[in-house]
Amino acid sequence: MRYGAETMNDITIRHAEQSDLPALLDIYNHYVLNSAATFDIEPRTLDQRREWFSQFSGAGKYQCFVAARNSEAIGWASSARFKERAAYDTTIETSIYIAPEAAGRGLGRALYEVLFDAIAGEDIHRIFAGVTLPNEASVRLHEAMGFRQTGVQPEVGRKFGKFWDVGQFFRDLRGNQ
Ligand SMILES: CC(C)(COP(=O)(O)OP(=O)(O)OC[C@H]1O[C@@H](n2cnc3c(N)ncnc32)[C@H](O)[C@@H]1OP(=O)(O)O)[C@@H](O)C(=O)NCCC(=O)NCCS
């Protein structure tokens, strides 16, 4: 982990729990309302987050980790199914959101490192991340973690009255393109 001693001491990275969901909901809804990083437009509800959370477990391909300070979640990273059809089984999609006041201090990288270690033994061939552009922090994070941009989906989302491109980023399980 790269972040400074002052933040490292009080940060724990662990599997997400049901009790984290209100904090994760607050973080996510901040970006729903203020950012095109997610294409959700209406704030999510706690029930919707519970349903979202049910796809994860403590082992296997689909896991969710939080960075917690004083047991309060301040960010998360997750691995989820990429697409429904069966041949997509060997591809996962990652998501990562850090509370705005905690961003830029190495937590994104630390969370991804723990997540990728946790899924290292799984039957996964490709890891996908979709990044609404521009998003320098996310592009830098994904490139630092071995993802490479393979393309752009042009203007596939409309939010805040404008169309947004989504960059397609991929890596394999070992961090190679
Ligand atoms: C994108 C995000 C997950 C990155 O996590 P983070 O904890 O802020 O990032 P880190 O501090 O671990 O930094 C990771 C890399 O990004 C760079 N970075 C971080 N914030 C940056 C910023 N605001 N501008 C430019 N680069 C930035 C860091 O320098 C580092 O790169 P390096 O390893 O090449 O030096 C976080 O900022 C976030 O949640 N943003 C809002 C939601 C979002 O965009 N989620 C991703 C959706 S695809």
Run of helices and strands:
HEHHEEEHEHEE
Overall pLDDT confidence: 94
Looking across the biggest beta sheet, what order are the strands in? Answer: 1-2-3-4-5-7-6
Any guess at the CATH architecture of one domain?
3-Layer(aba) Sandwich
Which geometry do the CA atoms define? globular
Main sheet? 7 strands, mixed
CATH superfamily of one domain: Gcn5-related N-acetyltransferase (GNAT)
Number of strands: 7
Number of helices: 5
Which cofactors or ions or other ligands sit in this model?
coenzyme A
CATH class of one domain: Alpha Beta
**What share of the residues does DSSP label as strand, in percent?**
25-35%
Would you tell me the structural class of the helices and strands? Answer: alpha+beta
Do you know the CATH topology of one domain? Aminopeptidase
Low-pLDDT regions:
1-7
Rg for CA atoms: 16 Å
Quote the distance from N terminus to C terminus.
23 Å
Helix content: 25-40%
Walk me through the structure.
- By secondary structure, the chain is α+β, with helices and mostly antiparallel strands.
- Helices cover 27% and strands 33% of the residues.
- It contains 5 helices and 7 strands, in the order αβααβββαβαββ.
- Strands 1-2-3-4-5-7-6 form a 7-stranded mixed beta sheet, sandwiched between helices.
- α2 (21-34) crosses α3 (46-53).
- Residues 1-7 have low confidence and may be disordered.
- Bound molecules: coenzyme A.
